[in-house]
Amino acid sequence: MLVVMYPHEKKTLFLDPLGEGKGKTKVCLQSTRAFMRMKGCKVSRWTCSTLPHNRQQDSTSCGVLALKFAEKILLGESIEFESSQKAVHELRLDIATSLLRESDDLSRLCFYCGMEEQDEEHWICCDICQQWYHHQCVQRPPVDKPYLCPGCT
């Protein structure tokens, strides 16, 4: 599901790839009002609406469609788009490509603890997956023998 809040307009846009229905829209409105009330806003005229949109055709594409709804809204475009199985598969690939392209460089992080490289630390590389680890994070295996990380053993 995607909930877009417009505080200055006192409204919420609610989009559910499975379909909204009165019950879900009411829960969205109640939740939005409660959240905004906690923020100190007056919520008596707050509304919750939806827009016509494609519905998911399977049990796994809800996240893909919600992300596409968000993208279209941010770009100020209509939220109508192709949602066939083939189109959803292509959207998944586009999302994965965007995430990889826009992600930070993680090459200086230990694949076990996620911490950055320290000058005095020793590193070891898995001979299969080629991921780097702080030597101490993986219980100091012998450096003169082939090393397999926990994920590859």
UniProtKB/TrEMBL annotation:
SUPFAM superfamilies the record matches: Cysteine proteinases (SSF54001), FYVE/PHD zinc finger (SSF57903)
Statement: the UniProt record of this protein carries the keyword Ribosomal protein: no
Transmembrane regions listed in the UniProt entry: none
Lineage top rank: taxon: Eukaryota
Record key words, sorted: Metal-binding, Zinc, Zinc-finger
InterPro entries: Papain-like_cys_pep_sf, Zinc_finger_PHD-type_CS, Znf_FYVE_PHD, Znf_PHD, Znf_PHD-finger, Znf_RING/FYVE/PHD
Recorded GO MF terms: zinc ion binding
PROSITE patterns in the cross-refs: ZF_PHD_1, ZF_PHD_2
Keyword Zinc: yes
Domain PHD-type: 107-153
Protein name: PHD finger protein Alfin1-like isoform X2
Protein's organism: Gymnodraco acuticeps (Antarctic dragonfish)
Lineage of producing organism: Eukaryota, Metazoa, Chordata, Craniata, Vertebrata
